[in-house]
Design a protein that fits this description.
Structural class of chain B: mainly beta
Radius of gyration of chain B: 14 Å
Largest sheet of chain A: 7 strands, mixed
Structural class of chain A: mainly beta
Number of helices of chain B: 0
Order of helices and strands of chain A: EEEEEEEEEEE
Strand content of chain B: over 45%
Number of strands of chain A: 11
Order of helices and strands of chain B: EEEEEEEEEEEE
Oligomer: heterodimer
Distance between the termini of chain B: 41 Å
Distance between the termini of chain A: 37 Å
Helix content of chain B: under 10%
């Protein structure tokens, strides 16, 4: 089974431009999450999509947006790029795990990551 | 809020040495815990996981036990190899309502194994 694919792998943009990144999940996976990885802040959650709906969003400005298509492929868009947006953008897909019946809900979702898109803003 | 703290790196070991990377977490409820590994130029790969207290996750000689009483999930390997050189991330996952969830990661620990 093919893994998560992300395109493009590398991208160089200028401040003020906008960019669109693409992610194709593993076949059958319906949830797609996006993360930003930088040396200073580490890995930070951007948003998560399931069945074309954004279910959760991290603490990022509105310049960061995304969408999911009916085939579960997802795109994220960053408008008015800033130098600080230079980062590795990772996409992850998952199937829901099992929820415990012994008490509180236990989330066991395994997320599978793509190779990332390296965005450099100059 | 939820958070993960793991030991600062970098860690440099000789081949066949014993590895421990400490990880502690703060979370409400019952998160699942993970270790991910990132090789140079690649995305993250799931190394192992544990979903409830006292669970032991293991894979490729690596082990970690979910300790709820100490809120820890330390990664161990008895004999490291040069090929284990990578960055290791401890993470937890928790529900955010409406069926959604997100991973919270530690800062990562870079491991270098020398022959």
């Amino acid at each position: 089974k093919a893994g998560v694919t992300q395109t493009p792998r590398y991208l160089i943009k200028t401040r003020g431009q906008q960019v669109t990144l693409s992610c194709s999940p593993i076949s059958g996976h319906r949830s797609v999450s996006w993360y930003q990885q930088t040396p200073g802040q580490g890995l930070q959650f951007l948003f998560e999509y399931f069945s074309e709906t954004q279910r959760n969003k991290g603490n990022f400005p509105g310049r960061f947006s995304g969408r999911q298509f009916s085939n579960s492929r997802s795109e994220m868009n960053v408008s008015t790029l800033e130098l600080g947006d230079s980062a590795l953008y990772l996409c992850a897909s998952s199937l829901p795990g099992t929820e415990s019946s012994w008490g509180p809900v236990v989330y066991s979702y395994e997320q599978y990551f793509g190779p990332g898109t390296r965005l450099t803003v100059t | 809020g939820n958070s993960v703290t793991q030991m600062e790196g970098p860690v440099t070991l000789s081949e066949e040495a014993f590895l421990t990377i400490n990880c502690t977490y703060t979370a409400t409820g019952y998160p699942s815990l993970f270790w991910y590994v990132q090789y140079p130029g690649e995305g993250l790969q799931l190394l192992l996981k544990a979903t409830k207290a006292d669970d032991k996750g293991s894979n490729k000689g690596f082990e970690a036990t979910y300790r709820k009483e100490t809120t820890s999930f330390h990664l161990e390997k008895g004999s490291v190899q040069v090929s284990d050189s990578a960055v290791y991330f401890c993470a937890l996952i928790y529900g955010s309502g409406a069926g959604s969830y997100q991973l919270t990661f530690g800062k990562g620990t870079k491991l270098s194994v020398i022959p």
